[in-house]
Amino acid sequence: MSRDEEERDAAQITSPSNPRIKRLVGLRNREARDRESVFVVEGARDLGRALESGHRPTEVYYDNSLFSRSPFPAPDEASVDALALDRASYRGHSQGIIAVFEQFDVNLDRLELGPAPLVLVLEAIEKPGNLGAMLRTADAVGVDAVIALGAGIDPFNPNVIRASTGTLFTVPLAVTDLEAAAIWLEQRDVRIVAADPLASTTLWEADLSGPTALLIGSEHDGLTPSARSAAGLLVSIPMHGAADSLNASVSAAILAFEALRQRSC
Q1: Contacts of 175 (CB under 8 A, 6+ apart)
Q2: Could you state, in order of their start, the residue ranges of all structural domains in the chain?
Q3: Collapsed DSSP state (helix, strand, coil) of residue 53
Q4: β-strands 38-42, 97-102: how paired?
Q5: CATH code for 108-264?
Q6: pTM for this model (two decimals)
Q7: C-alpha 87: how far from its chain's center?
Q8: Which of 48, 82, 104, 265 has the fewest CB atoms in 10 Å of its CB?
Q9: Cβ neighbours of 2 (radius 10 Å)
Q10: For 182-213, how does the pLDDT look when each residue is reduced to its tens digit (9 = 90+)?
Q11: CATH fold of 3-102, please?
Q12: How far apart are CA 189 and CA 181, in angstroms?
């Protein structure tokens, strides 16, 4: 039996070339994650938020120089030398713990809305970090749900999880296309309000106190023509400097907090 095989049987990993470490490295790739229907979470904060939200890891790998035993329970636990765990970390330096979770359902029909709901709808957000930041904003505002539009959206990308600070687990999320989302919202009498820098109505003039879905376009291309057509109202964010646009996650935050302000009056 090889050294790596002995380590695996003993649930103790010392080598960065251990097959389990190589698998964790491979899970940085979406194809590998989707094939196993799993994703990876790093760090005690994000892992703690997952547990508080009712999610349970299937595997936990912990730095044996920091912990004598796994600080989070899982069916499969492994004690790992620091250098080997750093190799598994997509950042190159682990925070002492890495966990594997099963991917959860992100279908639209799983979402439930309360009275006068506030929904954040994100079209073709190409940067995982932006999606993560928007989830963080959604959690802070207390939106009912986030709906991400586009086949390329990968909610289980490591950068989404990191930028969301674990709020991927706390915010109801669905991934679908524009047509399905528009029908779903219309059936629930939720008006779509879309951010458009050319809109004549400013954000401050719009009424966001009723059932509202705030639609944000991609940072590079903005809203598609179909998204503009689906919106019941287009609003602009007043700009007073030389810049003619904002980061997509910043725009989402401005709209979401204005909706929260109006609902708090």
Answers
A1: 106, 147, 148, 149, 150, 153, 155
A2: 3-102, 108-264
A3: coil
A4: antiparallel
A5: 3.40.1280.10
A6: 0.91
A7: 24
A8: 265
A9: 9
A10: 999 999 999 999 999 989 999 999 999 999 99
A11: 60s Ribosomal Protein L30; Chain: A; (3.30.1330)
A12: 12
